[in-house]
Amino acid sequence: MRLTPEIRQQLEALGPFGGNTPDIGEALLWLAAMDRPGVAIDPYRRHLQNLVEATRDYTAGEDPALVIERANMRIESLHQIIIRRFGYTSPESTDLEPHDFNMMRVIDNRNGSPLCIGMLYLYVSQQLGWGLEGINFPGALLLKTTDIDTPIIFDPISCLPVSVPDLRLMLKAVRGQDAELSPVHYQPHSHTDLLLVLLDQIKCLMLGLGQLDPVRHVLEAMILINPKDGQLWRESGLIHARLDHIAEAINALEEYLKYSRVDDASYDASLLLQDLKQKLI
């Protein structure tokens, strides 16, 4: 994993991150390129466009006056094209690997994390101008329609609607029996949020493998997307320090302290910063 100057430039060219503004397909491909040096992106762009065109053709006869029926047909069309026709699926095992979050490899294998499959739904919907978004639900990417009065929440892998009782059971399975649904669980996950979630998954997997140098590049990509997140700067500083990248660690920790409140973590970061600066003397 390496955030090269070209990839950085391409991500910056997508425009300011935040909300659903960035082209999520382009962002996913350039992030995937961090682990696929020299691999041409155009064939993957064409594949994503094929998904869009096939879905558009599938819904060519929809009646705009039938709002609820149209929403259900759009969900069905995404499932039929992405899952049925093109054969995308997710690993049966919950033990995912970094390549399960790399969109190029997901396209090659037609297999990837549920997060990546859901982001394909979001990309196609974005290109077609449909109202669809991820929601802030722990442990799974659930999607929600936004263009009808009573939103439909569904699982992109099964395409089955998820009811309130279903959500309650899912939440308790992840957070414990005392957990209860609240409005926060229905709040939207922007495309930017989801890109950060994807990178965070890769980061955690690589940390588990002890691959610190790739982790620093993943963190740099996350900071590029969300430069005001102090915790990302802190993590970056700690990784650079472990790699003995003194100047980079100092810069990252100074950025962290700009955004952090005074607490034990910021105090520890200040002490580490002083030690690192002593090494430069």
Structure characterization notes:
The protein is 59% helix and 4% strand. It is mainly alpha-helical. It folds into two domains: 5-189, C8orf32 fold, CATH 3.10.620; 228-281, no CATH class. Strands 3-2-1-4 form a four-stranded antiparallel sheet. It starts with a helix and ends with a helix.
Note the main attributes of this structure.
281 residues, C8orf32 fold, single chain, four-stranded antiparallel β-sheet, mainly alpha
What's this model, at a glance?
By secondary structure, this protein is mainly α.
Distance between the termini: 32 Å
CATH top level of the largest domain is Alpha Beta
Strand percentage lies at under 5%
The shape is: globular
Which series of helices and strands comes N to C?
Answer: HHHHHHEEEHEHHHHH
**Helix count, DSSP H or I runs of 4 or more residues:** 12
Structural class: mainly alpha
Which CATH-level-2 architecture of the largest domain? Roll
Low-pLDDT parts are none
Remind me, CATH topology of the largest domain?
C8orf32 fold
Tell me how many strands there are.
Answer: 4
Strand order of the largest sheet: 3-2-1-4
Helix content range of the residues, please? 55-70%
Rg:
21 Å
